[in-house]
Amino acid sequence: xxxxxxxxxxxxxxxxAIMSSSAACxxxxxxxxxxxxxxxxxxxxxxADNSGLGALGGAGVGGLVGSQFGGGAGAAGATLAGVIxxxxxxxxxxxxxxxxxxxxxxxxxxxGKTMTIVQHxxxxxxxxxxxxxxxxxxxxxxxxxxxxx
Length: 149
Known about the structure:
CATH 2.40.50
């Protein structure tokens, strides 16, 4: 990688906010940047963070469909069954749509520690190879492995 990328990676994370019709970005320094060497890299599954909207939408649709069956107490039971089945199906669908691929990096850090980091893999990310120098950027709960050069 080119030197400007390394300087940008060391400078921090770009936090962008959409403001009217343009995007404004500000640099925020990471809490820590550690130097290390990649020991191992392998594909990793990144499970989705369910927001609950799939379950809510599924429960609504399931309740509507269920209410069309039965009469009296039977209609209430069918509606309840529709709500439960719809919520389960909606939650599963939301999770399946949000799953992403990632990478699991094991790094030997300059301070002697060994760390394993699982991170999302964006389309433009270059996969680091074992033996390659890397930077571990940490900002709050966020960690990212980037090339050192």
